[in-house]
Design brief:
Elements (H helix, E strand, L loop, with lengths): L8 H9 L3 E2 H7 L5 H13 L3 E6 L5 E6 L1 H5 L1 H24 L4 H14 L1
Antiparallel strand pairs: 1-3, 2-3
Length: 117
């Protein structure tokens, strides 16, 4: 599970399954991932054989990441995880809409507001 279980690994893999990407492209596509975490997770994915990293002998150096056949084999799993996540999010929203009215919470909120004044 650790192979695809990192915070950003599924997102990285989904983006690389759509084609080769450079680091900055991935960084733009995953703006909430810090460069340090993105670098770490790319290294782990490479070590696990999920992606390849190709360095081109240019100045400045150009590096491209690409999904391997092993990564392509987990594409259906990633799709299922995405579908489950969408369903979970929709259920959470429905539950929030159905949440019963609680006058105690309103009184507590009023007390906090009054104390702040």
């Amino acid at each position: 599970m650790s192979v695809i279980g990192g915070l950003w690994k599924p997102t990285i893999l989904v983006n690389l399954l759509m084609g080769k990407k450079r680091f900055m492209e991935l960084s733009r596509l995953i703006p909430d991932a810090t460069q340090r975490v993105l670098t770490q997770q790319l290294r782990e994915l490479e070590a696990d054989g999920m992606i390849t990293r190709q360095v081109f002998p240019e100045v400045p150096p150009r590096v491209e990441y690409e999904a391997t056949d092993l990564a392509r084999s987990v594409a259906p799993i990633l799709g299922s995880l995405r579908d489950w996540g969408n369903q979970f999010r929709a259920n959470q929203q429905r539950m929030e809409e159905l949440e019963p009215y609680c006058p105690v919470e309103d009184r507590a909120a009023d007390a906090v507001r009054e104390a702040a004044e």
